[in-house]
Structures are given as C-alpha cells and as structure tokens.
Amino acid sequence: MNFEYAAAPESRSVVKIDPVYGHFINGKWVNGSAHFNTINPATEEVLSSISLGSAADVDAAVKAARNAFDKSWSKLSGRERGKYLFRIARIMQERAREFAVLETLDNGKPIRESRDVDVPLSAAHFFYHAGWADKLEFAGVDTTTAPHGVVGQIIPWNFPLLMLAWKVAPALATGNTVVLKPAETTSLTALLFAQVCQQAGLPDGVVNIVTGDGSTGSAIVNHPGIDKIAFTGSTEVGKLIARAVAPTNKSLTLELGGKGANIVFGDAAIDETVEGIVNGIFFNQGHVCCAGSRLILQESVADEVLEKLKRRMDKIRVGDPLDKNTDLGAINSAEQLAKIRELTAAGEAEGAGRWSANCALPTNGFWFAPTIFTGVTQAHRIAREEIFGPVLSVLTFRTPAEAIEKANNTPFGLSAGIWSEKGSNILWATQQLRAGVIWANTFNKFDPASPFGGYKESGWGREGGRHGLSAYLKGSAK
Ligand code: NAI
Ligand code: MG
To answer: Are 152 and 102 in contact (CB under 8 A)?
Structure first.
C-alpha cells in the first residue's frame, strides 16, 4: 500500500511584506529612484518592489559607513561591539520563523531547509563572532587587530540570509562598518535584517544595505571610499572584481564557484553513502557552491550505488517550498533554469546518459526534476562547468590514483567528499585532493568555527573560524 503525505503548508501570515522597499542607509529607509520586482520563484507571484541602487545611493551608503566608523564604531571596545552582535543573534532567533518563511517565499528553497539550516546557522554566525569581538588579540591570526574601515559586501541568491551573516558578523566583530548588496532576486531577508539592526539599536551607518543588480555591485566595487571588498558569486564576476580592485589599495576576498567531487570507494557503507550523495547534490536544489556535483564511483560498486540512488531519488518530494514535507523546492530564477536546461542539453548532445526522477512538477514557477548523468567523461561540459542545479554527473574509476586524478582535474577547488570505511584511505585521499573543504562520510556540513573557501578559480581567502577573522583585519594578505 502506498501512503500519500497530506499537504502540510507553513503559514505565511507570520511575515509582513511591504509593497515597496527603499535602501537602508544611515539607519533610515531611503527610497530609490528606480525599482524592480522580486518574485516568488515557486509561483511567479510578485512579492514586492525593490529599489535599484544607483551610484549616488552607494555613495550615500559609503559616506554613512565612513562616518559611523570614524565617530562611533571604531571608538567602541570589542566588548561593546560584542554586545550588539549578541543582541542581533538573539533577535534573529526570536524572529526565526519570520526569516524562514520570508526566505522560502523569496528564494524558493524548502521551508525545512530555511527553518533548520539557513536561519539557525545565520544566528550561530552572529553568536560565534560576538564571542570573538573582545578576544581578537588571542585569535592567533597573523595580522594586526585593526579593522580595515568600510567594507563593501556583495552576496548571491542561493543562501541570502546565511551569506549576509557570513559577511556581516565577522566584519562587525572586527570593528569594520558595512555596505552590503544582496542579490537582485533575493533582497527581502536582507531588508528584514536591516529592521533587526534597528531593533538591536545598532548605531546608524554601521550596517547599510543597498539593493540592486550588477550595476549597483559594480558601483560598490569601484567606490574609492571602500577599504575592502568581500564577494560571493560566480567566477566570472569574481574575475571582473579582481581586475577592478588590482590597481587599488582595497583588500579582497572572493568565494566563487565549484565542481565538488564526491568520491565513493568500494568499501564505503552504501546506504549511508547514497544519503550523502543526495544531500551533496540535491540540498538547496543544487544551488550550492560546494555541492558534490561530480560523483566519482569505484567501478566495483557503481551498479549497486546507482540502482539505490535512483530508487532514493524517486522518493524526493518536489513541490511547494512552504510545505514542511518538501525536499526540493523551486529553481531560483528563470535565468538559472535556462542555464540548467542549456547545460543538461549539452550533456545529452555530448553523449552522456540522462535519467530523471519520476516526479510531477508544478506548472507555474521554475522547476527542474532531480537528474543524473551517467557515462560522463572529463571532457564533457557537465563534468567541467558549474550547473548550479539538481543535476549530478557520474564518473567512475578503478584505482584510487585515478579517483584523485579525476577529482583534481577541474579549474575549481572548493569542496570534496570521501566515502570509505578505512581511516587510512580517507587520510591519504584528503592529502591528495586540492579542495578547501573536504568531508569524510558526510557532506554539506557547516559550522561557524570552521573556515570555508577554495583554491584556484574557487576564490581567495577563507570565511568563518579564526582564519576568516584575518580577512577583516589590516595586514592580511590581499
Ligand atoms: P553573479 O555572480 O552575477 O551574482 C552574484 C552577486 O554579484 C549578485 O549580488 C549580483 O548582483 C552581483 N554582481 C553581478 N555583476 C556584478 C558586477 N559586475 N560587479 C559587482 N557585482 C556584481 O551570479 P548569477 O548571475 O546570479 O549566477 C550565475 C552563476 O554563478 C550561477 O549559475 C552559478 O553557477 C554561479 N553562482 C555561484 C555562487 C556561489 O555561491 N559560488 C552563487 C551564485 C551564483
Ligand atoms: Mg525572489
């Protein structure tokens, strides 16, 4: 007998969305001169109208941040700064449901993930950094403990609130002031965060939020009053920013794309491994820079893993992101869906075998069924380029050396996973892999205390942990 789940939608009555939002500059709401809509990608419903930041708006925000740095924030002791961070963290916890529902509405991710991952981890980043604010001289970082001044922060749409927390918490803990731009499809939780800053009594101008698109981001990058840029997003834009910043004195950290290898050795515990593969690529619709998007399977277990993986994929519940039983939500935008379709079409054209889970997709909104490609070779675009969707490319290997060779054969170097029952095998493989984060017998585990970042085209610098603090202190490597 087949039991169906009853619908279990989370109520959206907890959130109040204004019809129009301004920028948050110097502690006040400033309406922009132009606007664009933000929609719910699961339904295409227009949620609100967002201000499109101009160069003048960015300039006002930078001036406010400089003034706040000079007059208030840099004069406070670490202990006083820490109190504000603790307050922000507690308010985020108190308003967790509001943040989770709003994130799900604006981004399309399942409420289960925004509620259990994005929001608690965001609060955890503020708690963690609150603790460091008065202990910077004991952090053991190879820098002074002086802040840069004004930092410009540009974040993507895949973890809107969490990426804000990764950026704002260490910046404030180390004594910097902030001008942050959320991604154009997901501004709402950043604007709710601005309300939290007001509620926490944060001095005006310490956090400024300017909404907008790439032109707004570019105005931040090129503003002469900014001392440091922190960016998370595509490698393409990361390269543009690196070029723009190179002839200046600005400090820079980049967290860019990935093509993470998830390596399964013949001795792995297969059922646990299948769960880890699913979490590695289908978490957050695969819109994850460190996703395990290349599955590298030892031939001896390939058939068994693939059969169990397909059976498991048929059970993934795709649909209403506000439903508490949904596993896979909407693709964030029509543009991203087009990119996933283009790359999966290339996979088929280049000869890889396509298989998709048997699930009904809603008719409105942007959706893509969980999909795997088998028979993928190193030359295929789907093995080399970031798809950033619920699509897994499967390669196989015979010897451990071949697994490492394939895993490292990528322009990226952000994450990797190893599945094996043997500790010596895991230690050997981690030493060979060129990736900033390596998980063993798990995947997509995050903690504010552990540094995150990549090699090669995955970026520069680390975020989180003690290492992440140094990026916000003077004297750190550029
Ligand atoms: P994107 O890199 O264009 O956007 C990220 C942020 O950068 C957004 O806030 C955007 O407004 C801003 N931005 C865009 N152009 C800019 C410029 N010239 N100067 C300064 N800021 C600028 O990423 P997009 O177009 O949303 O996604 C394209 C692809 O990038 C995705 O398919 C995915 O492969 C990758 N990506 C990777 C992410 C990661 O976490 N590593 C996050 C988002 C996208
Ligand atoms: Mg949206």
So the answer is: no
Q: Whose CA is nearest to atom 40 of ligand 1?
A: 289
**Ligand 1 probe mutation, 36, 234, 283, 290, most atoms within 8 A of CB:** 234
**Which residues, by Cβ under 5 Å, contact ligand 2, an ion?**
38, 106, 185
Which atom of ligand 1 has the smallest separation from the CA of 221? 20
Tokens of 341: 């379709």
Q: Which helix (H) or strand (E) holds 251?
A: strand 251-255
User: What tokens were used for 144?
Assistant: 């002074």
Give the mean pLDDT of 139-144: 73
pLDDT digits (tens, 9 = 90+) for 227-270: 999 999 999 999 999 999 999 999 999 999 999 999 999 999 99
CB-based contacts of 53, cutoff 8 Å, min separation 6? 23, 32, 181, 210, 211, 212, 216, 219
3-state helix, strand, coil in the chain (%, to 5): 40, 20, 40
pTM over 0.90: yes
* Exposure string over 79-96, b if 16+ CB within 10 A, otherwise e: eebbbbbbbbbbbbbebb
